[in-house]
Amino acid sequence: MARLNWRHILIHFIAFWFFRHAFMILSYLQNIALVDIMLHSNYKDTIRTNSTNAELINFMLWTGAASTIGLLVGFLIAILISIKRRWFWLNSLIAFLAIFLLTRFGLSGWSILKQVFLTPGQITDNTTIEFLINGVILLSIGIFILFFRPLLRFIETGKMLKFQSNLPPNNFKNV
């Protein structure tokens, strides 16, 4: 059935948002010493003395590219799901382009929501574990959204829950 489906676009848009930010957070693990310096000191002076230009360029390159890579990974998974379930692939492409453009113009909402999604990692003082916890949680939510059966059913039928009772009928009438 080849047609646009707003539920499909919305669910995949949300999943892409989580994939993008999960990969961005996890990319900070590539140079945790630099992240530690930036988080826990007057980093302008410290970075100038402790980091080379090559380290800074490499760090900025990979953290910038990681969010796009995360978005592409989420998109590829979504396309595979769409093909398998015989959904119109254009819905996933629209969601991809929407999140890409909103992010490009700084309208993805990360600046507001990051306080919520970066809180779980703050249970530890270890920067590596902090970013690992936050990244894994974001990635898990993105994967969950793409594979959660009630959401898949919602995309297909528009109904979120399908209640089926396995209890026998009540045969007692106004006892």
Q: Tell me the strand percentage band.
A: under 5%
- The secondary-structure class comes to mainly alpha
The description of the largest β-sheet is: none
Low-pLDDT stretches are: none
Number of helices: 8
Query: In angstroms, what is the radius of gyration?
Result: 21 Å
Fraction of residues in helix: over 70%
Distance between the termini: 51 Å
Mean pLDDT: 86
Q: Which geometry do the CA atoms define?
A: elongated
How many domains in all?
Answer: 1
Question: Would you report the number of β strands?
Answer: 0
Order of helix and strand elements from N to C terminus: HHHHHHHH
Overview of this structure, please?
The chain is built from eight helices and no strands. It is elongated and about 55 Å long. The longest helix has 32 residues, at 53-84. Helix 1 runs antiparallel to helix 8 (149-157). By secondary structure, it is mainly α. The protein has one domain.
Please outline what is shown here:
This protein has helices at residues 6-27, 32-40, 43-50, 53-84, 89-104, 110-117, 127-147, 149-157.
Set out the fold topology.
Elements: H1 6-27, H2 32-40, H3 43-50, H4 53-84, H5 89-104, H6 110-117, H7 127-147, H8 149-157
Keywords:
175 residues; mainly alpha; 0% strand
